[in-house]
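Handoff note, outgoing to incoming analyst
You'll be picking up this chain. Sequence as last confirmed:
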Amino acid sequence: MARLTRWARELLILALMLLVMVLIVDLWRAPQAPPAFEQQLLKTLGGESVSLAQLSRNKPLLVYFWASWCAVCRFTTPDVAKLVAGGSNVLTVALRSGSDQQVERWLAGKKLQLPVINDPQGSLSAQWQIGVTPTFVVISQGNVVQSTTGWTSYWGMRLRLWWAGI
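Most recent structure output, in case you need it:
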């Protein structure tokens, strides 16, 4: 019994250390919202003009910065599409993934339907100081409330949106 208690304590310490490291890395990599970003109009691949403040007014918005060439994004993008299909408030930004047509072909090839802002030169992502893909930013009522980088599960994304809405 003492051995099991020791292992449980060691596992708990390891989990806490990992959590602290993840939080520190997230703070270090956290994107910075550009000045007056909430007033900026963005055009989706579908031709719709949207503003992040408007989209986040009634419920939290997940802004997902991804790239077609990003290995980790191949695992997270289907989960983001699942959020979209489930009615979650999501907007995605395709970072340096080619022309509008190339992004549309890539999405069609993966059978994904997402609201996408194409950022072919990376200028929008640079304004946000995005240095890692994927990056997830949660905006509520026009304010950035949280962000994370790297792999995140479907339930992790849902939990972040839920947390921002309470």
